[in-house]
Write a structure and sequence with these properties.
Layout lengths: L1 H19 L28 H6 L7 H13 L5 H25 L8 H7 L11 H20 L7 H29 L10 H7 L2 H4 L12 H29 L5 H9 L8 H10 L4 H10 L10 H26 L2 H9 L4 H12 L1 H17 L2 H6 L6 H10 L5 H26 L21 H28 L2 E3 L3 E4 L2 H7 L2 E3 L2 E3 L5 H31 L5 H13 L2 H11 L11 H24 L4 H9 L4 H12 L1 H17 L4 H4 L7 H10 L3 H26 L13 H14 L3
Helix pairs in contact: 1-3, 1-6, 3-4, 4-6, 6-7, 7-20, 7-23, 7-24, 7-25, 8-20, 10-14, 10-17, 10-21, 12-21, 14-17, 14-26, 14-29, 15-16, 17-20, 17-26, 19-20, 19-25, 20-24, 22-32, 23-26, 23-29, 24-26, 26-29, 27-28, 29-32, 31-32
Pfam family, one: BPD_transp_1
Protein name: ABC transporter permease subunit
GO biological process, one term: transmembrane transport
Length: 745
């Protein structure tokens, strides 16, 4: 009881601070700049909630204050069930009221005509929500969760209930609300009235649904072309990722460290660079194209500019993601099950096919799903290599920023894309439903996996080694491009591109960053280092809740998480601009909108990787900890997280890299103050400064490799002690000898 009261007291103190200690509304110039302290609390622009109610005419805020007071009174109710009911009701009403008044009241008054009809006109409006409103909302969420826990929801585990409540609210605010705002805008006229004509016209467009061919050719509609490309990319990246994971964990391949680095390189490459490198190699004037023409008389063609070129670039880009997901799953397969199969006289191939591979199903399914969604949402590769073969993501981009200027068409294409990705998600769920893939149970085994079948070992090496060589060639061309004057035309060596991008000077002990790339570089590092741990934290916590907890709406919650990952970044960027450019949450032009976009765009990778890894952890590990009276939070921190280190590394690496290399959403969200590296590189490419763009990209690759290495060292490796320390070989032999002496018969 004392612990519960202390928990509630801290939350009530947070709610009181929201009304007394910080500005209620958004501060121009930023909250953390602390410039608002000079006018606090009397100035209306920076006044706290209590002053807004009694001194500045925002009387409607008194409802939230009264509800917080009801929660404070309920703290002294002795009956837990009754106290929980009051806290849950008051917390839910408080949160709903803050959201409703933020949506209903804008800068000049009511934003809804019905509100003015019901309550009369307002003398004044209100700015967007600020620190006070956000803290009050957080307090009401926690009060609601603690109330449910008091009533026995989730066995009274306040940490679990609060985590679910917080994640649901975050998904609603940063996924459902912006996407819903964009779709609502697609069926509205410029004055906000309902007008679905554009939506209906585009959904029936023949260029989307044409069935001119079945292999993704030029006559195919953009929907089927994108679907075919996504299926081929997901299949290729999953198979390659599995091959790399098997070579890294089940063979004696001598170049494993180099192979791991090469599998990471494509994912840390800024956008457009792989496409440009492939163009330099295989384009009409490419190095390999000219060599084949001179040596064998093969006429240069345009085969690279279409689905084939996009497919090669996407498989090269997304295989590392599959590898990061699959390597932890391949490592997690228990050797004891493989040994049991061989004990029953199964050969290596049969053991791998019937025992090892089925236990990798969660990883394979998740890798395929991620590859499918990544291909659907990819923007950079189709833009560079697509030619006349547009896909959904590029068509959405041109519908928004091109001459069409047709948001209804962009919304229709986004809905089609979402249907494809959610269908893949449902197929994956159906394939894995009702099966158990737990292999890490806390029981001992030998600790060594069986070798691969000889034919399979030869096959994976035959795939991995050529792909490694191809990757080295591609990145060799990228590195070469930063040291030549004009990439592909004047190949004389020079350092001027690096000097222009990253020059600096030292005057009186003060460093002056004079290079043109420094401003966007420091901004990118700051945003990436903030968003990466947040993405990993939210993603792995969500995976824990999905796998280990049973609560109402869990499937809907999981669908919502995939929503932001399934929609192209261009749509995410547009939806964030529409949703967060006006009250109640105004974040455009700030670092916060970039961090939020990265966290909720990249979180599904952490979720899928966490689910795949956690599916192999037997529930008995959790139950043993809980039986010893550890809380769910301590169990998660001490038992689960140490066994999820591969998933943690994958989430940190992927979120950090995507924060640096993402372009499709970033191009809409950057500002003069917060300009990201990818947006700056796109500007360089558009201006024809390919050398500086490649030099900048090469520097980013080096920085990302360094940071990824540090992250891996910081997190460490998962150590699964396979041996049975109590009944090892020596104790068993001793026990057997003793028994034989006591009972010779």
């Amino acid at each position: 009881m004392e612990h519960r009261n202390r928990r509630l007291d801290l939350t009530l103190g947070l709610g009181l601070a929201a009304f007394l200690a910080v500005p209620w509304y958004r501060i121009e110039g930023g909250f953390f700049g602390l410039g608002w302290l000079s006018g606090f609390p009397s100035d209306a622009a920076v006044a706290p909630g209590l002053a807004q109610i009694f001194a500045h005419g925002r009387s409607w805020l008194v409802v939230a204050l009264v509800l917080l007071g009801i929660c404070a009174v309920a703290r002294f109710v002795r009956d837990p069930a009754r106290r929980g009911l009051v806290l849950a009701a008051a917390g839910a009403l408080g949160l709903l009221f803050i959201a409703a008044q933020g949506l209903a009241i804008g800068f000049t008054g009511w934003t809804w005509t019905i509100s003015e009809t019901l309550f009369g006109p307002l003398a004044d409006g209100q700015p967007s929500m600020g620190a006070g409103a956000v803290l009050a909302s957080l307090a009401f969420i926690l009060i609601f969760a603690f109330g449910l826990a008091e009533r026995g929801v989730m066995k009274g585990d306040a940490f679990i209930v609060a985590s679910i409540a917080l994640l649901v609210c975050l998904v609603v605010v940063f996924v459902f609300y912006p996407v819903g705002s964009m779709f609502a805008a697609s069926v509205q006229d410029f004055d906000g009235s309902f007008k679905p004509d554009g939506f209906l016209r585009n959904i029936q467009d023949g260029s989307i649904w044409s069935l001119g061919c079945v292999t993704g050719g030029e006559r195919c509609g953009v929907a089927w072309r994108t679907l075919w490309l996504a299926l081929m990319t997901a299949s290729g990246s999953t198979l390659l990722g599995l091959a790399f994971a098997l070579v890294a964990t089940r063979t004696r391949f001598p170049f494993k460290k180099g192979m791991r680095m090469l599998t990471v390189l494509p994912i840390i490459t800024p956008p457009f660079v792989i496409g440009l490198a492939l163009t330099l190699l295989f384009g009409r004037a490419g190095v390999i194209t000219e060599f084949l023409s001179d040596a064998f008389g093969i006429e240069p063609g345009r085969w690279l500019y279409g689905l084939t070129g996009i497919w090669i670039a996407q498989v090269l880009s997304f295989t590392p993601i599959s590898f990061l997901v699959l390597i932890g799953v391949v490592e997690g397969v228990s050797p004891s099950m493989e040994e049991a199969s061989q004990t029953l006289r199964a050969d290596r191939w049969r053991t791998f096919w019937n025992v090892s591979l089925p236990l990798m199903k969660p990883g394979l399914a998740n890798a395929f799903l991620i590859g499918f969604i990544e291909s659907m949402a990819d923007f950079g590769n189709p833009l560079v290599l697509g030619g006349s073969h547009g896909v959904l993501s590029t068509e959405i981009f041109f519908a928004v920023v091109g001459a069409q200027n047709d948001p209804s068409r962009a919304a229709v294409l986004a809905i089609i894309l979402l249907c494809f990705t959610l269908s893949a998600f449902l197929a994956q769920r159906y394939w894995l439903a009702g099966k158990n893939y737990s292999t890490v149970t806390g029981k001992g085994d030998s600790g060594s996996h069986i070798a691969l079948p000889r034919s399979l070992s030869i096959g994976v090496h035959a795939v991995v080694i050529p792909w490694m060589i191809f990757t080295v060639v591609v990145y060799g061309m990228i590195l070469f491009g930063g040291f030549v004057k004009t990439w592909g035309l004047d190949n004389s060596l020079t350092f001027e591109h690096y000097i222009k991008a990253f020059s600096f000077s030292v005057t009186d002990g003060v460093i002056a960053w004079t290079g043109v790339a420094w401003n966007s570089f420091w901004t990118t590092m700051e945003i990436a280092l903030i968003s990466a741990p947040l993405t990993a934290l939210v993603g792995l916590l969500t995976a824990y809740l999905i796998v280990r907890q049973r609560f109402a709406g869990r499937d809907i919650f999981e669908f919502a998480l995939m929503l932001s990952f399934a929609i192209p970044g261009t749509v995410i960027g547009i939806s964030y601009i529409i949703a967060f450019n006006l009250p109640p949450l105004e974040m455009t032009g700030t670092a916060l909108i970039l961090v939020a976009c990265f966290v909720f765009r990249n979180m599904p990778v952490g979720v899928r990787g966490g689910i795949a890894a956690m599916s192999q952890l037997d529930k008995s590990l959790d139950e043993a900890s809980l039986t010893l009276r550890a809380t769910s939070f301590r169990t998660l921190r001490k038992v689960i997280l140490p066994l999820l280190r591969p998933a943690i590394v994958a989430a940190l690496v992927y979120s950090f890299v995507r924060a640096i290399t993402s372009i499709s959403a970033v191009v809409f969200l950057v500002s003069a103050e917060y300009n990201m590296a990818t947006s700056y590189i796109v500007g360089l490419v558009e201006n024809g400064e390919f050398g500086v763009a490649i030099a900048y990209s090469s520097a980013l690759i080096v920085v990302m490799i360094t940071v990824i290495t540090c992250l891996q060292l910081l997190v460490g490796e998962r150590k699964l002690r396979r041996e049975n320390r109590v009944f090892g070989a020596a104790p068993v032999r001793a026990a057997t000898k003793t028994l034989s002496q006591e009972n010779p018969a």
